[in-house]
Amino acid sequence: MELRHLRHFVALAEEEHFGRAAERVFVVQQALSNSIKNLEDEVGVPLVLRTTRRVQLTPAGQEFLIGARATLAQAAQTVERTRRAARGEIGRLTVGFVSGLAFGGLPEIVRSFRELYPNVSVDLHELTAQEQESALRGGQIDVGLLLLPVRDPGLESRPLWRQPLVAALPAGHPLGRKRRLRIGDLQDERFVFFPRHLRATYFDQVMRWCASAGYTPNVVQEAIEIPTLLSLVAAGLGVFLPIQFFERLSLPGVVYRPVEDAPLVDIVAAWRREEEGGGPIVRAFLGAAREALGGEVAE
């Protein structure tokens, strides 16, 4: 039994005339008649009563009409859902993100994506960059949001956002009176920072930047989380060099100042190389990210 037979039957039931039904489904009348006859042969019972004036359904035909309409509607829904899935409009997306993005970038991206694709379920997992690469390889997440570089040759990546580093200073610090700083201004300061093994890319970039000004930062205290590090700044233990979007984390006792020639940090999306373009849902997610981040997307 083919869907076209069901379409022909429904058209005939609604038009009650072979000629009009044939025109409606764009076939000649004889082809429609043959289609109905084949359908009756397959079902094994008469479905229509043929008269010179009109076509009427038999009791069996009336029951068959209910099922035929339901089957056609289900088929249409299946086709539409398939097309929407191919466009990335339905399904499930599992996203990994480094903790810092919770304060800037991630909320905007997820909000934009959910508004554009409300039928895609989004699962979020806070993971380090190394954990994300492992989770991508193992299929535990579909896309990761992390900092460059992405070292795994089995992963593709695309820059989403580019942000400079800034100086976080204790409130009342003498350098806070300046509108802009130079990295050399911080050479005599004590620093608070991440342990290198947790943020190796970030750590090394800051160390190279300070080395270019002729000094190695005096790191007097380490902490794992951004809020903890900023709390240490507020307590006067040292200065910190976060990415600019952490300025959104307004904390009493902390002031932020831009630093001239600050290095730019790329936030990227990564996915498995074997999935061309990341798959339709990942492509939809990247599009939403570009829209959410606007002019701050890295070219």
Notes on the protein architecture:
- The strands form four sheets. A five-stranded mixed beta sheet has the order 4-3-5-11-6, sandwiched between helices.
- The protein has helices at residues 3-15, 18-24, 29-43, 59-86, 106-116, 129-138, 200-212, 226-234, 279-293; strands at residues 48-50, 55-57, 91-97, 120-126, 143-147, 155-164, 166-170, 190-193, 218-222, 254-258, 264-272.
- The protein has three domains: 3-86, Winged helix-like DNA-binding domain superfamily/Winged helix DNA-binding domain (Arc Repressor Mutant, subunit A, Orthogonal Bundle); 91-162 and 265-296, 3-Layer(aba) Sandwich (D-Maltodextrin-Binding Protein, domain 2); 166-262, Periplasmic binding protein-like II (D-Maltodextrin-Binding Protein, domain 2, 3-Layer(aba) Sandwich), CATH 3.40.190.
- The protein is of the alpha/beta class and 299 residues long.
Q: In CATH terms, what is the architecture of the largest domain?
A: 3-Layer(aba) Sandwich
The CATH topology of the largest domain, please?
D-Maltodextrin-Binding Protein, domain 2
Q: What helical percentage do the residues reach?
A: 40-55%
This entry's quaternary arrangement is: single chain
Number of strands: 11
Rg on CA atoms, Å? 32 Å
Largest sheet, spatial ordering of strands: 4-3-5-11-6
State the end-to-end distance. Answer: 53 Å
Number of domains: 3
Mean pLDDT: 88
How many H/I helices?
A: 9
Which class of the largest domain in CATH terms? Alpha Beta
Task: Name the CATH superfamily assignment of the largest domain.
Answer: Periplasmic binding protein-like II
Low-confidence stretches: 295-299
Rough shape? rod-shaped
Element-level helix/strand string: HHHEEHEHEHEEEEHEHEEH
* Amount of beta strand: 15-25%
Helix/strand/pairing category: alpha/beta
Major sheet summary line: 5 strands, mixed
Family: Belongs to the LysR transcriptional regulatory family.
Domain HTH lysR-type: 1-58
Keywords: DNA-binding, Transcription, Transcription regulation
Organism: Deinococcus hopiensis KR-140
